[in-house]
What we know:
This protein is α/β, with parallel strands linked by helices. The protein folds into two domains: 388 residues, TIM Barrel (Alpha-Beta Barrel), CATH 3.20.20.80; 74 residues, Immunoglobulin-like (Sandwich). Helix content is 25%, strand content 17%.
Amino acid sequence: MPKPAVMNTQDTLQESTNNWWKGGVIYQIYPRSYQDSNGDGIGDLAGITQRLPYIASLGVDAVWISPFFQSPMKDYGYDVSDYRAIDPMFGDMDDFDTMLASAHKLGLRIMVDLVLSHTSNQHPWFIESHADRSNPKSDWYVWADAKADGTPPNNWLAIFGGSAWHWDAAREQYFLHNFLTSQPDLNVHNPEVQGALLDVARFWLDKGVDGFRLDTINFYMHDLKLRDNPPLAIEQRNASIAPSVNPYNWQDHLYSKNQPENLLFLERLRSLTDEYEGRACLGEVGDAQRGLQIMGEYTKGDKRMHMCYAFEFLEAQPATAQWVKTIFDKLDEYAPNSWPCWAFSNHDVMRVASRWKASQAASKAYATLLHAIRGSVCIYQGEELGLTEAEVLFEELQDPYGIEFWPQFKGRDGCRTPMVWEQNAQNAGFGSGKPWLPVSTPHLALSVDSQEQDDLSLLNHFRKCIAMRKALPALQTGSQIQMQQQGDILTFVRENQDTTLLCIFNLSDTPQGITIPSGHWQTLALDLGSHYAKVNTGDTLGPWQYSIAKKI
Length: 552
């Protein structure tokens, strides 16, 4: 199929609107698993450069790359030991510069994944901080004395299991870690820490990156009084942030995160970003109870985050008509002026094809829906192929999260297995060496080369969805009104000053009756399978069918 036209120079890229992110489509890469260029079994920056033409062919606006900074890799890059260095397994700074320049020539923007809430315990800042209680960086991390009986300062829990506090013999104090014990939390209340983190952001902005995906931004600050988190009622628990078997879900995390002082730091980060033309901040908000409210606070006005990464569609709960309407009703209530970035998959959750038990027809409907609802879009590598969650044997596991909670929760390795490029190539074209995680045999039939030539493949369906979104500004930045749900039918209107679009989705595997409102409507997206609906008469949408029409 013809490839979308791409821009040729950095100058052309800079001339485009500074609001590219609003309604933009972002492609997430997990670099360990995308393309191995040197045969060591681990994907790298040179491998990403090799595959940039493929990414450009999708028509996306930007690429978000999960962390590639120097790290001991206890949490596979989300434990940073040097924010300004490339981990050798991914290459070096020359490889990064080449990748960035190549992306810009193809009209692709690069967003780097900054982890500012915590570091590795091998970061020089922490090594100095934990040496004693009087060094210049002694207050750069969250330290606290034990209770009189030697137990931790409070009841806060870590997402990866156990107490969020770890005893440090050198200081004879506990330090806070919301994730692994090897990931101590920075004390972002400290102005010096804020300054150091802003310097990190400036370093990458000066390198020419187009923005940041900011990991766990609601974890930046803690309650200075170290108050206990209250228990959470059973009926309020969900598994959007942590698996259901994790007692982390049993607390209402009022004090361990989501502190109001964080807003001022986010404003400082946004102000810095705004010094550079056309850059954007995408903040990840991880909260199972108040995610949308926090999104509203964090994107309010034009002084905080440009957009927030939402978790509502990352749950096991499928995107039924009722669930989608529930989410947008809450969004209208808590954050009507916010700008969400929606994702159905990422590197931390079971792949959507398995999580929602989606057939090919359902996967196409979900892809179309994702590109039709108000907000920006994130696509996780392999989602465009319909990859399922891979089965990884316990002895092959790499993820400490899965090892801790096996077998009730098998971790995140199943969504991190290598990208499948060529059905019949060694390691599916990922690389010549033994991959760090095994290539999933069921994925081979879904490889890029096996789908490229099939106009009806899910891969080409994603291309058409993105092209539709680009062709219809009302889908990118228009308002969303009149959302209605009747049984399995979801209906909503997207409009701007020039265009009114009617979107109707049958989010089920059974035929559903619909009625098109009176007026003159032109059916759009016929190449996507959009149903040509009859106006003001009884009509039927087949299983997983949809209709997108323009008022004329």
